[in-house]
Amino acid sequence: MKKLLLTLALGTCSHLLLAQQVISVYSVTIPNSKPSDVKETTITESNGGIRVSNVIQPTLTVFKPAKDKANGTAVIICPGGGYARLAIDHEGLDVAKRLNEMGITAFVLKYRLPNDQSQPDKSIAPLLDAQQSIRLVRQRATEFGVNPGRIGIMGFSAGGHLASTAGTHFAKPVGQDPTNTSVRPDFLVLLYPVISFADSLMHGGSRTNLIGKTPAPDQIKLYSNDQQVTAQTPPTFLVHAADDKTVKVQNSLRFYEACLHHGVPVEMHLYPKGGHGFGMNNKTTNDKWVERLQNWFDANGWLAK
């Protein structure tokens, strides 16, 4: 695959990364899509943050670790943004570079955001892209130098909702695949995730963007992923701040309790402060959750070569 310049309209921003491999999630026609005037947009906010919206062509940007560090584990990263945009920098590109330091091959997923103009069924577009990404990495594991049995998915905020959906809805994939390649991730990493779409816990923007303003009760339940956990749900690592006013900490607590109930190995780190959207750097503490994550990876054998 030809190496491409990852521009993302970053200009001279410090996040500019040269010669990363960018691959299309789909090699043929993109499923659940229709012609529209929607055009992808990228903006750099006043604080330097990079936000991508109106994604039409989903892609994976591949970050490979140094050959002497590579251990065969892969992580697909889903940035957050309320299913309205993607915080592609501090919840994507920066995280990928940190995972590379652990010897992990990282894939930043630029997934489609729900859009009635460009998708016949906006509720399944992000999950289609996430499941196809797992399928693609697993099918091309040799090419990427990864173990097809060590492919996890990681998500922040609404990206955490997408990752947790991938980790609980794999038994009945939303897309067609004649190869029957498993789309079950081998582990989940969920950072201040949207989990529940129940009225009392939902992040309103995420729910409305994905399943509409007046969703049916069965849709609310289907996408309340604490209610979709089974004994087959992958081992899970959770991080949240108790003072998160955007996505209530009870989202992570519910998922943790569901994992306990079903015997799913789970580890959770809660911080008293930090708010929402802190990425890898919770400025209220000297503790680094990414170091706790590295310990978890190590304890589960995912850093072994």
TrEMBL record:
Residues 61-257 form the BD-FAE-like domain. Pfam families: BD-FAE. It comes from the Bacteria. Residues 1-19 form the signal peptide. Keywords: Hydrolase, Signal. InterPro entries: AB_hydrolase_fold, BD-FAE-like_dom, GDXG_lipolytic_enzyme. One of its GO terms (molecular function) is hydrolase activity. The keyword Signal applies. Gene3D superfamilies: alpha/beta hydrolase (3.40.50.1820). PANTHER family: AB HYDROLASE SUPERFAMILY PROTEIN C4A8.06C (PTHR48081), PEPTIDASE S9 PROLYL OLIGOPEPTIDASE CATALYTIC DOMAIN-CONTAINING PROTEIN (PTHR48081:SF6). This is Alpha/beta hydrolase. It comes from Hymenobacter tibetensis.
